[in-house]
Amino acid sequence: MAVVHKPNGKLRICIDPQALNTALQREHYPLPVLDDILPKLQKAKIFSKLDIKEAFWHVCLDDRSSELTTMITPFGRFRWARLPFGLKVSSEIFQRKLSETLCEMEGIFPVIDDIIVAGCGETAELAREDNSAKLQNLYKKCAESNIILNDDKKELFLEEISFHGHKITSNGVKADENKVDAILKMKSPTDVSSVKRFCGMVQYMAKFLPSLSTTMEPIRVLTRKNVPWNWSAECEQAFLEVKHKLTSAPVLAYFNPDLELLLQTDSSKDGIGAVLMQNGQPIEYASRSLTTAQRKWAQIEKEALSILVGLKRFDQYTYGRTVIIENDHKPLETILRKPLSSAPRRLQDIIMEMNRYDIQFRFVKGSKLLIADTLSRSYLPTETEHERTRVLCVNEDISDSRLEKIRNETSRDKSLMDLKETIENGWPPAKHMLKDTCKPYYDMRETLSIIDGVLVKGEAIIIPKSMVSEIKSLLHSAHLGYDSMIRRARGNIFWLQMNANIKQMAENCVPCQEMKAKPMKTPLIQHSDGKGPWNKIGLDLLQIKDRNYLVSIDYYSNYIEVDYLTSTTSSQVIQILKKQFAHFGIPSIIKSDNGTQFTSSEFRKFTESWGIKHKTSSPNHQRANGKAESAVKIAKHLMIKCNREGSDPYLALMEQRNTPRQDTNLSPNEILLGRQTRTLLPSVPKDQHRKIHKRERRKRSIKKHYDKSAKHQPNLDINQNVYFELRENAKWVLGKIVKQIDKYTYIVKSQEGVTYRRNRLHIRPTAVEAVIRDKSPIRVVEPNIQVSYPVIQDPSQNPIPKIVNDTSQPLKPSEIVPVITPTSAPTQETAPLLRRSDRIRRRPAKFDDYTT
Questions:
Q1: What would you report as the CA-atom Rg of the chain, rounded to the nearest whole angstrom?
Q2: Model confidence at 585, in pLDDT bands (50, 70, 90)?
Q3: What whole-number distance in Å separates Cα of residue 534 and Cα of residue 681?
Q4: Do 39 and 145 fall into the same domain?
Q5: CA quadruple 437, 438, 443, 448: dihedral positive or negative?
Q6: Is the dihedral of CA 79, 80, 84, 90 positive or negative?
Q7: Most buried in the list 263, 354, 668, 833, measured by CB within 10 Å?
Q8: DSSP code at position 147
């Protein structure tokens, strides 16, 4: 939401349109221009001008458009039901609808939110009557169309009115003197610098008036070296003549709505200058002085004000059109792109009023803004205007006496007075041109201003050096920490090196340091788990009631050993460690706390003689020996729980060692010993289990890959007519399904009565009736059809060995060929006689699919 102050002092609610305007596509509807209206006003003698109240609100929005205008207010989110102000499409949409409504009315000309009524007649009296009649018709039409007029702004029965920078009268059109006042009333130069600025402006305009250089010669002489200053009558006459030429054709151009509109603005320390141009040729000039309060503004605020003044001064041209703004203050380019809420408060007011216009900011060097720069320094005196921007409170929480003290101390502070002078007179273009006391403020110059005699940075009061100690004491009165004091100070007060000063004060406060909490824990340092099993172990003592135990843990596998100690001496600990080392080997590193049994000379000699590096944790920092501490906790809980329920702690410890770790899914026993140890809990050997799972995963993967190019085939019924392939790439023959062996294997009988075993891949259903001719069982020698199928087999498993001379070994299922005969009584096959070789007779594998 944006709030704009209207000329009558009331407020106008608008939306912040920057983001929405970027996405909107303009409706190009031509706005009325002077050339369109002048031919229709030749006989007009009396004029009236009416203003439409809240013009854009006469246009209703549909639901989709209304949702785009949703804005955030202190009372929630609201969306506009009518066309809001600030959108770049609003003026053209409204102008089209207004023109369509009033297009048939003679002598009435709608121009955005104004309506011009022209009264014609031979005499002024007749023209007045004509104007009155047209007004009555207009009022009636407005009532029918629900158009509300503003009675406070109506101008009735005038002999001349202003339109687009011109005066329209009964005698014709004449230039509006206001558009050239900035040049005509320009004061004569008083020094060489002002002469150079005037010459620069004239030089820019010389391309439209080639003869201007001759007229300028008496003035240009004053810019030469060794020429004393003397503003003679000849110079004054030349000055007046040049101003007259600059404010008349061909220098001053007529406005053309089809050309790009350019507004150049500039602000000096005391004034504002603006010029409206098309194709490099001026259309209108404007300048004005700054008020006493505005002269104390920051330069960025003055430059923004110059843009706003130019837009409003040339409103009849700039409103409803895209305007290119040229200015030499680059920070404005960034601020105008940011959300409204991110701008300083005073700039928010200015930018909100700019939102009424469709502007595009373009940064140019000051040397190219010759006209605007000259006008801003040779400004017209302006009566003190009522500033409608909201009052900026220095700080509502500060007392009047303290504020007065800050003001007085500021006036005694030399560096701040230098800064104040720089702000009032304007910042130089380069940092090295500043006084040393002002250089630290150069990078923040855009946010510095003077409010009621107090220097402020944004909204924060700049504290004089003599009051810094007092303000620091007030900040620390509650003994807040550094961060809290910075948050309290930021946005309210400011002085150079404020953060460093506050930090130093917090660190030097004795009560704060004495009562300060412990520092936050340092980032976790993960100790190495060693290069392999039992390479690095941790040691700690565990005491349960009156019994002491040595707890050892392998860093690599988390394998825990718990050994009873008859005493806690170094010799007893060494004895237990020797026993462990005999089982698992000598570790490279031992980590322990600083217990006497680990820090004694005896233990040191033992580790040195056995080639072990002994590391101890920091005193009073158990976390440094966290691995051993964790093992002690596990062992303690395990033994106490087992003691309470009367179970064997050694069995529990055995199960703990067999329990897989969360990170590796392997148990300590598997990592350290390479196997699971046998316990009372039934289990499958881990290696076999993993191998089975690995094999099943591979089978599933193969099937998934194979099925990508496969398709499910429907099952076949018994006696169903089919075609089947006798052999690979051979002719398909007709037959019937006799039996289904498995999901994809069938026994098929041909029309000759011969049965075959075929895969579903080589069978296809048919509607052709197969006629089976029964024959006596015979064996048909038939080559086997070679079919490729995916073989799912674990490569780690050995193939089944071939068994020789083993009559007790039954044949594999694939070697049994069912024999189907056409008779109801089955035949019994006689066992073959054995020969001297005592060899088992088996038919060749190529006949496996053949049956009779």
A1: 51
A2: very high
A3: 26
A4: yes
A5: positive
A6: positive
A7: 263
A8: P
Task: Quickly list H helices, 314-440.
Answer: 315-318, 331-335, 345-354, 370-377, 400-412, 414-425
Note whether 728 and 845 are same-domain residues: yes
More confident residue, 852 or 63: 63
Whether the predicted model's global pTM rises above the 0.70 cut: no
CA distances from 425 to 33, 192, 434 (A): 42, 19, 12
Distance, in Å, from the CA atom of 592 to the CA atom of 612, rounded to the nearest integer, reads 13
Higher-confidence position of 377 and 845: 377
Same domain (yes/no): 567, 633: yes
CATH at residue 211: 3.30.70
* pLDDT reading at 314 higher than 90: no
Which of 619, 649, 673 finishes a domain? 673
**Does a structural domain hold residue 691?**
no
Return the H-helix or E-strand segment holding 705: helix 686-707
DSSP state of 129: H
Are 245 and 273 part of one and the same domain? Answer: no
262 and 236 together in one domain: no
Q: Which of 102-116, 182-196, 497-511 has the lowest mean pLDDT?
A: 182-196
- Per DSSP, the residues of 341-372 read GGS-HHHHHHHHHHTTSEEEEEE--GGG-HHH
CATH of the domain at 557: 3.30.420.10
Backbone dihedral angles phi then psi of residue 345, each to the nearest 5 degrees: -60, -45
Is 699 among the domain residues? no
Closest residue by Cα to residue 302 from 337, 334, 262, 274: 274
239/186 Cα distance (integer angstroms)? 10
Q: How far apart are CA 426 and CA 267, in angstroms?
A: 10
CA distance 215 to 241: 8
Kindly state whether residues 15 and 157 are assigned to the same domain: yes
Higher-pLDDT residue of 31, 679 = 679
Q: Is residue 685 part of a domain?
A: no
Question: Rounded to an integer, what is the distance from CA 251 to the centroid of its chain?
Answer: 50
Which one, of 77, 67, 275, lies nearest residue 165 by Cα?
275
- Domain presence at residue 680: no
Q: How many domains does the chain have?
A: 6
How many CB atoms lie under 10 A from the CB of residue 711?
Answer: 5
DSSP of 530-570, one letter per residue? Answer: -SSTTSEEEEEEEEETTEEEEEEEETTT--EEEEEES--SH
The Cβ of residue 177 has, within 10 Å, a number of other Cβ atoms equal to: 11
Same domain, 142 and 20: yes
Q: At 776, is the pLDDT very low, low, confident or very high (cuts 50, 70, 90)? A: very low
Residues in the chain: 852
Average pLDDT, stretch 503-531?
70
Verify that 138 and 33 share a domain, yes or no. Answer: yes
